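Handout, section B. The chain below has 141 residues.
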Amino acid sequence: MFHGRIDRKGFAKGFVVINIPVLIVTVFSAVATNIFHTNAREIAFNNGIVVFWISMATLILIGVYFLFYWLALVGLAIRRFHDMGQPGWFSIVYFVSGVNLVVGIFQIVWPGENVQNEYGMPESPRKLKDIFFGDTKNRSV
């Protein structure tokens, strides 16, 4: 997940794939908030304990999802920086709001090195498994 390289196309595919669930959760949350807001008194009064546990379960699921989201995003960023010949530590900028958007666009636009560098040969993964976990067959680490 954190070793090897990934090209611009693979990085863009991975970025889109990990952000589709974020979009779905955001839309679902907006709809659910609107429903709960319009019927809040009736729902809370009649089903208070149920609403509480549904809210707690939702928060836990969102927390677990975002842990995996950040691991996948940082893994993609590290491998993309490796493709550009830079150390993976640069991916720490993804935790700085605003800067992460600029760096993400930079990583999609800036070409990688076309030759082997200290992080391996250039890779152009085709399968989602290879995008997120790298080439596990040819790993030298």
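Note. The helical segments are 8-38, 40-83, 99-109, 128-133. Compare this with the example in section A.
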